[in-house]
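Rather than argue in generalities, we have chosen a single entry, letters for residues, whole numbers for local backbone shapes, without further comment.
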Amino acid sequence: MDSALQFLGVLAAATVGGVLLRLTGLQGGLALGAMLGAAVYTLVRGGEAIAVPPLAQDAALIVLGAVIGAGVTRTVLTD
């Protein structure tokens, strides 16, 4: 299977997993569900790692860093 299609498949599985766990109200369900969805998809496809384009990895890390950084307050730093 083409690597772009594999990436789209793992992205779709991660989205479904994230949404499902978020609907349960579980703390961190969106992130945990996305990881589980991606892992299940990868294992069902044979267990070989699926290539994630470097640009997608970089974009995800930038967004993640921005979200975490936006939560830093003086109280967080002084406690």
Observations:
- The CA atoms of residues 17 and 36 lie 7 Å apart.
- The helical segments are 3-23, 29-44, 54-70, 74-78.
